[in-house]
What does this fold into?
Amino acid sequence: MAEPKKIPKDYYLFREGDGPDAMYIIKSGGFAITKTKGSSEIVLAEIKAGAMVGEMALFDLKPRSANVKALKDSEVIALPYEGLLKQLESLPVWVKAIMKTMNENMREANKKIKMLENPNAESERFAPHVINKLISIINYVGNRYGQKEGDALVIPQNRLRNTTIQIFQEATNKMQSMLQALESLGFMKVEDLGEGKQKISNFQPDTLFNFVDWYNEWLFKQDKDKVQVSEEDVKLLTGAVHFAKKVEPNNKNIRKINLTEIQNDSMKELGFLIKADDFNGLIEKKLLTEKIMEEKGVFIGIMLEEIEPLAKNWKIVWDLKKVLR
It folds into this structure.
């Protein structure tokens, strides 16, 4: 059996957002399960000797969902997931399926309870200003303390965690969710190194810097000056940018694109159909020029240098909203 590990009073067995590596049996002492809220912690439960903690991540290896802090000098016995998973392999498939389902149901039940307690919790958790704040922290730590490694900027995990909690007073589980979201969108890679350690690689730091500057400016505009770009608008703007790159700009730096050609070629080149009238909403928002009737057909104009970054940044907004739900 593994040797007991001593955890002094007020020290953490693990923190919210940490990568999981083991479950623990409490041999002596006691712990508080807490959630971080701003610069303080809320105690959810207390657990005593003989109890087990950290078992929920055994199947899905999701980041820790809460802090576990020693209430007194304590001892725990660590059961590494690696060894447990090997033992689980010997169990019948139906037993493993039941255990996995029970674990997933427990996580889902906990999530629904939180939503019932506060229906707006998830929307508040990743409100636009929170999204921009978390990415700003990533940008700051990467720029100040990161190390170049090939095409990536490697961000020190401990520095990121401390900056998130101590300076910006945000929960590490939110930062972990943001890292996972950016990884799913191809901006980053988060590698689990074991024992709660991670290697965080940012492949597009410049893109994220530009996004934060743009989004911050947009968020603080007066409502009358804000142009709302929907997810469907992003799709159309991306299509317009694709075809605009095929033509040369005029002396006003405007590129004219033929609506008939877009309608005929969009399915083949983009994988979705764009009809001429689909651009009407973007014309009303003054993101594209009015339609121009010419001998060769109907055209609209686009300022590529303005619209291309706009489309890319709004795509990030909508992609993040989908993966952070």
Observations:
- The chain has three domains: 5-90, 126-218, 227-319.
- The chain has a mean pLDDT of 87.
- The longest strand covers residues 40-48.
- The longest helix spans residues 93-117.
